[in-house]
């Protein structure tokens, strides 16, 4: 059995790929709960980490951060600010890995172009509760479930 560590990544103070990073946004990963979900891209070539408001994508073979983008705000529409909690609650990918879906404490569901880090689509469901969400394997639909039901959206 191998227990060999193959990659260890650290958050840079000012990652060059996040150009619109607010000045007051903490750069360090908080031990008090700033980290959110972690996952692999569908091709297993990258590791994706939610670090507070930022989604970071690292290449496994080189250990380099390939892209990152600002994911979600820290304010819930009903319960207000969430302090040190993770802002991003879930990350899902289309089968080809070109699109990603994120769900945040701001009750938004967002779809991203992974290579560029650009947001493609977003919605804040009414009422604002999202229990589950996913992106279709082809990246062309989003489904979410929460009170009062389930909804399906076509993506651009």
Coarse shape = globular
Beta-strand segment tally: 13
Radius of gyration: 16 Å
Determine the N-to-C terminus distance: 46 Å
Order of helices and strands: EEEEEEEEEEEEE
Major sheet description: 4 strands, antiparallel
Tell me the helix content.
Answer: under 10%
The structural class is mainly beta
What is the topology?
Layout: E1 35-40, E2 46-51, E3 54-59, E4 65-70, E5 75-76, E6 80-81, E7 88-93, E8 99-104, E9 109-113, E10 118-123, E11 132-135, E12 141-146, E13 149-154
Antiparallel strand pairs: 1-2, 2-3, 3-4, 5-6, 7-8, 8-9, 9-10, 11-12, 12-13
Question: What's the gist of this structure?
Answer:
Helix content is 0%, strand content 43%.
